[in-house]
Amino acid sequence: MSNLDDILKSRRDTRHFTTDEVPDEVLQKALQAGHWAPSVGLTDATRYYVIKSDEVKTAIKNLFLEYNKKAEELTDNPEQKELYRSLKLEAIEEAPIGLIIAYDRSVLNQFTIGTIGSNEAVKFSSVCAAQNIWLSLTEQGYGMGWVSILNYHQFKKILDLPEHIEPLGYFCIGKPATNYGNQPMLQQLHWKQKSETPDCKEIKEIHQIHIPELALKSENHIENQSDFNRLLQEKIDSKTKPVGSLGTLETLAFQMSTVFETLNPKITKPNIVVFAADHGIANHGVSDYPQDVTRQMVNNFLDGGAAINVFCKQNDIQLSIVDSGVNYDFPTNAKLIDAKIAKGTQSFLHVPAMSETEVQLCFEKGKSIVENIAQKGSNCIGFGEMGIGNTSTASVLMSVITGFPIEECVGKGTGVKNEKLLHKQNLLKKAIDNYSGQTELMSQLAYFGGFEILQMAGGMLSAFENKMLILVDGFICTTAFLIAHKINPAIKQNAVFCHCSAEKAHQKLLNYLEAKPILNLDLRLGEGTGCAVAFPILKSAEAFLNEMASFESAGISKK
Questions:
Q1: pLDDT tens, residue by residue, 341-387
Q2: Which residues form the Nitroreductase domain (predicted)?
């Protein structure tokens, strides 16, 4: 067979193979065809692993069978369920050769042209390689089947593949045992009919993006505020204790009652929201970790393995994960909130990080996320973040908004020190020097901002509007609060600053905001961990105000 159209039309996902061996020269020719496939930015990131061992094939077959049960449960169609049960994918053991086609994500740790808009372009290059391999094998009289119903985490573990290697799937290679009547097997089994022609539409006009202005109330208003404050203070002072002896707990109880507008405050459905995004500035060596760690940590959040997962579970706090702009395409069924603005900001060392339209969109997305949480009955929300390079973004934003020298706003972030810390400081100073824009806030945010930081700021403003208690985590979240505070200073009455982090600039920023943090535990993890750890103290404030006896009820004499 040599006519390309005939080969393309005959394309079949081979499911059964003969016992004929595959000559080495056939496989090598096919792999060379894969190597000739387009490679974005000449990354040359496609990797191949050949499997001939029966033991390895059996392990992969068992992994398929185990995961196929989960796939079966995703359809409510009885006939499709039965078809799923019948799938044993004997090809994994029948095929003489197993092939893993993968891509190496570590190439993204350096600047790679062609991946600025999407890191996934590297994956697409490997898909092109898979297509070329199939074409070559078909032309040589062989076939290939693609197995994707696998638990990829376990798949990589049993094969001892490095973390940075991402498989497209497991491919079976050999002589086809049948052509299924020259139609796809699933089509022959009446699973679904493939359309006869491609789906193609012409786009003739652009769509204008309309983002409404963020409407805010200037303050939470209680009728007869002075009377309410007097009654609240009397309730606090009447508890069986010396006046003021519960210190910060009394302050928190007073604040909580004021925010909730009741003398009997009760935290309901607390939620910590972790906003994640990537930053172009990370490509300039400002972090000890590669940018891909953002994606890895989001997956860790989704798998329940991060510190914030542990602390939220400990304190019965709902955890929400937001993709604000991670340079990765997460599966559509991932349990996260999709608020992606773009796949990471641009590097503000040379160009604006984002457009002013994207700034507005960040505020709108953040507002919408928090409004949805408030509508479900939550009145207490904590903010956390994840994003390699975001301490650099926060440092620059702090500097340009407050006027503090950048040297006073730069910290270790993920742990950089010595020469690398000095490099980070000098780099950010250069970025500020390169900025020739206005001192107007929105211009500064567009030039230096991060998607997750601005979404947090928008979310905090929305939380204030919805009369929620706002829990502020560490340095980066406090920078987001700084932005929200510049837009609406009244927001401070709802804010609880959970801790002072080990980032040296955090204390300076708290002083600037005249904010007193609850804890000082040398935390600098982010993720909203400070909010979760401080939460039991809020519950203590709530408990003493609502449950502690008064002098009168206990029959105890006052001073």
A1: 988 998 898 889 998 889 999 999 999 999 999 999 999 999 999 99
A2: 8-175
